[in-house]
Amino acid sequence: MKKQSGFAVVELVLLIVVLAVIGFTAVTYYNHSQIASDSSSPTAATATVPTAPQVTSTADLTTAENTVDQMDMDASSTDGSHLDTELANF
Fold first, then answer.
1. Cβ–Cβ under 8 Å, residues 44 and 69
2. Cβ contact 46:34 at 8 Å
3. What's the chain look like in SS3?
4. pLDDT tens digits, residue range 16-33?
5. Residue 85 vs residue 43, higher pLDDT
6. Whole-angstrom distance between the N-terminal and C-terminal Cα of the chain?
7. Where along the chain do its domains lie?
8. How far is CA 1 from CA 4, 16, 51, 76, in A?
9. Residue 5 burial (10 A CB sphere; 0-12, 13-18, 19+)
10. Is 79 within 8 Å of 68 (Cβ atoms)?
11. What is the spatial distance between Cα 86 and Cα 90, in angstroms, rounded to a whole number?
């Protein structure tokens, strides 16, 4: 009789299935814990950002520009210049 060494195909498939189940369980648990931690603590930036008004007239553009200027944290932002262009073309 021949002596068998190594894994048989059935044993290899069984090993892959077990590792896949363990991996799937770990990824599911990790994603669930990330979603729970994200929803339980909102960031300060999302809590303080005002909603810009809907623009239907020139006065609304001025109001929207003032709103954007108040919350502009980055000096290189193009939001203000974009509103200036829209105001000139209105």
1. no
2. no
3. CCCCCCCCHHHHHHHHHHHHHHHHHHHHHHHHHHHHHHHHCCCHHHHHCCCCCCCCCHHHHHHHHHHHHHHCCCCCCCHHHHHHHHHHHC
4. 999 999 999 999 999 888
5. 85
6. 91
7. 7-41, 46-89
8. 9, 29, 80, 79
9. exposed
10. yes
11. 6
